Amino acid sequence: MLVARDGERVRETLGKLPGSGHASVIADLSRLSEMKRAAGEIAGEVDVLINNAGALFNMRQVTQDGLEKTFAVNHMAYFVVTNLLLPRLKAGARIVSTASDAHKGARLDFADLQAEKRYSGFSVYGKSKLCNILFNRELARRIEGTGVTANCLHPGFVATRFGDQSGGIFQTAIRIAKPIGAISPEEGARTIVYLASSPKVEGKSGGYYYKNRLATPTKEAQNDADAKRLWDVSVALSGVGG
User: Fold this and answer.
1) Which has the closest alpha carbon to 166: 130, 133, 120?
2) Strand 208-210 and strand 213-215: pairing?
């Protein structure tokens, strides 16, 4: 099951997959109602959940729910969809969330999670990636003993469409940098595939990985109090995950 916002690109992607029976849900994961609808349309039991939605916006945007859009897409979508699917995850299921080394240098200001006081596109993106790691940390703690595991990862600098429409100097810089230093989407997906399928990580949970190896995130990303606080704020914003 593939969840995405662009129907035409979904059809192209599904057409490249071997076999049949592949399905999709078209949803705008910046909106809470769409996050909930997408989770509801994923039928049956789930053995692997990969959270991979992500965006960066040069200018601050606010969603229909009153959330800053980066925070909504990059964090709340992971939080809402995962929590709604938890009852349908099989024993032994794996949750894999794409984070990033962009979290380095980021700190959460719980008095300004929506970046109303100060906004910088890449800085806010970095904070959203810190949210991913903190979410994974608290999630792993909460599902301990259920047979389900949760891990996150840094995929590397990948030559995808990410950032191509973010606007501003970042859009220009990333278009210049991709042909020089970016890895292929196939290389960028290796750690995701590893965490989703490798016997080497069976039963392991709460980790942050890079190039198929356990890595150490910043001390801010290892703050259990912040992880729990972010979870509680996310419950209040979404009405799920309590």
Assistant:
1) 120
2) antiparallel
Global pTM? Answer: 0.90
- pLDDT truncated to tens, each residue of the chain (242 aa)? 889 888 888 888 888 888 777 889 999 999 999 999 999 999 789 999 999 989 999 999 999 999 999 999 999 999 999 999 999 999 999 999 999 999 999 999 999 999 999 999 999 999 999 999 999 999 999 999 999 999 999 997 655 555 445 556 555 555 545 565 666 878 889 999 999 999 999 999 999 999 999 999 999 999 999 999 999 999 999 999 87
Cα separation, 242 vs 230, whole angstroms: 12
Whether the CB-CB separation of 56 and 162 falls below 8 Å is answered with yes
Q: What burial class does residue 229 get, using C-beta atoms within 10 Å of its C-beta: 0-12 exposed, 13-18 middle, 19+ buried?
A: middle
Identity of the amino acid at 206: G
Annotated catalytic, 210? Answer: no
CA dist., res. 17 & res. 114, Å (int): 38
Class of domain 45-238: alpha beta
From 78, 119, 125, 210, active-site residue: 125
DSSP letter at 30? T
215 within 8 A of 209, measured Cβ to Cβ: yes
d(CA 195, CA 96): 7
CB 105 within 8 A of CB 129: no
Rounded to whole angstroms, the Cα distance separating 80 from 58 reads 25
Hey, what are 88's tokens? 């349908």
Please report, for the chain, the start and end positions of each structural domain, with discontinuous segments joined by +. 45-238
